[in-house]
Amino acid sequence: MKTIKKPVQVEINVKKSQFICSLFPTKNKKESKEIIQRLNQQYSDATHNCTAYIVGDGEGFDDDGEPGGTAGKPMINVLRKNEIHNVTAVVTRYFGGIKLGAGGLVRAYSKSVMEAIGEAEIVEIEEYDVFELVFEYSDIKTVDGEVRNNSLEAIDKDYSDKVIYQVISRDSRDIKKIFEKYSGKISVEFKNKQFLEKMSL
User: Fold this and answer.
1) pLDDT for 58-88, tens place per residue?
2) What structural domains and CATH numbers belong to the chain?
3) Do the Cβ atoms of 24 and 88 come closer than 8 Å?
4) Does the model's pTM come out above 0.90?
5) Closest Cα to residue 186, out of 135, 132, 149, 143?
């Protein structure tokens, strides 16, 4: 599965209409909606802000006033065709005075997203199980050793009253099995599944 590494923006002009495609890496609908809302405010003077997203908890699109099926659907179709996931696309249009017709709109919105994908840095992503480990400072060396020796990956570390690691694995049974022997000393809790950039675990 693929996604984009960082946001990218491209601009094309079709018969005096300006199309600005903004692509953002996003993990869920909440992030997508926040981005769409922000761009709607940023480009509040635009004729249309059409959107499409494919994220971990769903997908969707919106024509934002363009004729039905001429904007959002072609945009999401381009994302699907290129197998791009965890992404939100917003195409902002400033009308140039010349109507493009349904076919012209489909081509323009599709091309905007295609051009943006062409400019983006594409990375492979995989689904990982995310676990939270909670333990005392005195057990840091033990936990670090188990993470390293079992080819796990700590994606976040928090040092407060206790130490909290967010650890990922492709197989949840691995983490549970590894830390079973430390029952009572190291708390292990499954948090969620996440699509993350592919790691050499």
Assistant:
1) 999 999 999 999 999 999 999 999 999 999 9
2) 2-120 (3.30.230.30), 126-197 (3.30.70.240)
3) yes
4) no
5) 135
